[in-house]
Amino acid sequence: MSTPALQETLAAEHAAVWVYALLGGQASEDDALFDDMEHAYEVHRERRDHLVAVLTDLGETPVAAEIGYQVGATRTKGRLLAVARQTEERCAATYADLVARSAGDERTWAVAALTDAAVRQLRFRGSPETFPGARELTDR
Q: How far apart are CA 136 and CA 131, in angstroms?
């Protein structure tokens, strides 16, 4: 198991939790997008907590979240979707790396997280990719 890959993935999850908290606060509660943002927030929070537990069990100090993250303007539905899509793309990339650098149960967990990020990216109007998270292998 690669501790650096776990730490990088945890850093991506810290960012995702922060971003979805921001986006959820700007999405209209009457819109299905709000429900998608809320669900994404909950999923990323669960993943973050899982990674913290794994690293702690390995005797490592989990990387801390940043104070804040650069997001840019998110006042329109199009921008909310774009930021959410970019967040999922970044998470998919870190999970693809974790898949490559892990084995056993941790790899199985990372594959499920990668698949979920790829599907959520589509939900936020992303494009399907042959190898989500692995830009060097993409067919675009």
A: 9
Q: Where are the domains of the chain?
A: 3-130
Give per-residue pLDDT as tens, 68-86.
888 877 778 888 888 998 9
Torsion, Cα 97 127 35 20, to 10 degrees, reads 40
What's at 62, amino acid-wise? P
pTM of the model: 0.86
Residue with tokens 């990088």: 8
**C-alpha torsion 10→46→17→116, nearest 10:** 90
Please report the DSSP string for 28-90 in residue order: -TTSHHHHHHHHHHHHHHHHHHHHHHHHHHTT--PPPPPS--------SHHHHHHHHHHHHHH
Determine contact, residues 115/130, Cβ cutoff 8 Å: no
What is the CATH code for 3-130?
1.20.1260.10
